[in-house]
Design a protein that fits this description.
With 249 residues, the chain is of the alpha/beta class. 26% of the residues lie in helices and 33% in strands. It is built from seven helices and 15 strands. The strands form four sheets. Strands 2-1-3-4-5 form a five-stranded parallel beta sheet, with helices on both faces. Strands 10-9-8-12-11 form a five-stranded antiparallel beta sheet, with no helix packed on it. Helix 2 (38-48) runs parallel beside helix 3 (64-71). It starts with a strand and ends in an 11-residue tail after the last strand.
Length: 249
């Protein structure tokens, strides 16, 4: 039987390296092309006609969703991304599976088995994500305008635009402005649902920053970056999985 031919498209070289290494362990899957942006992915697709495309969703020039639309039913699609809010649209585009970064070996094995068997319904560990997202109201949910925090016996309220960063702290989320440093019980995931994605970016699994407060990005070592924020003496670490957010800055 001929191997299943694969294309990997991701603007992060480390993520392409990771996927290449994982796929190399499976002799029945063959990597035939790699791409660093959406336009390159479409060009490589037309040149190689792979059986499966592993697509990052957020890529320069053309997004993974746009690439999938262009490809249509000419190949099977697996999305690989750090953002689970795209799960519904991914499966609406006919995706075989939806992998969250960093892709784990055990989870990829499930995807490859689905590809071997030709299964197109969402796997069990993705279905709860879809139910969760379907229970929300995308794009029509009111934006969060105020942060309410219990401080002692008082309830403090301040505009969300004043927030410099949010940082998870076990049971609580730390909220920092120029004048406040308080804890709330709302999780980062819940906050992301109500925050304006153009202003508030998740830069680490434990941190969301106000991009209007970013004054500098510093390199602290190999694959280590942090943000200097206006009005705050603390620096916020950037996870390598979110480096791509700052490539154009």
């Amino acid at each position: 039987m001929d191997p299943i031919r694969c294309l990997i498209a991701d603007d992060e070289p480390l993520m392409r390296d990771r996927m290449r290494e994982l796929l190399a362990a499976y002799s029945d899957f063959e990597l035939v092309a790699e791409a660093g942006n959406g336009a390159d992915a479409l060009e490589k697709f037309e040149a190689t006609q792979p059986d499966v495309c592993f697509l990052d969703i957020r890529m320069p020039i053309r997004s993974g969703l746009e690439v999938a639309t262009e490809i249509g039913d000419r190949s099977r699609i697996v999305f690989c991304t750090a953002y689970d809010q795209f799960a519904i649209e991914a499966f609406e585009r006919g995706a075989v599976d939806y992998l969250l970064k960093p892709v784990e070996e055990e989870r990829l094995a499930v995807t490859l088995e689905r590809l071997r068997k030709g299964i197109d319904t969402p796997p069990d560990d993705v279905t709860p994500v879809i139910h969760l997202l379907n229970s929300q109201t995308p794009r029509t949910t009111p934006r969060l305008k105020w942060i309410k925090a219990l401080v002692g016996h008082d309830v403090k309220m301040f505009p969300v635009d004043d927030v410099i960063f949010f940082q998870s702290d076990t049971k609580y989320t730390r909220v920092v402005t120029e004048t406040e440093d308080v804890l709330i019980r709302t999780s980062l995931r819940e906050l992301l649902d109500g925050l304006d994605p153009e202003i508030f970016w998740q830069v680490h699994r434990s941190a969301i920053v106000n991009v209007n407060r970013i004054t500098r990005i510093t390199r602290d070592g190999v694959e280590k970056h942090s943000l200097v924020l206006r009005g705050c003496p603390e620096k916020i670490a950037v996870s390598r999985h979110f480096f791509h957010l700052f490539k154009q800055m």
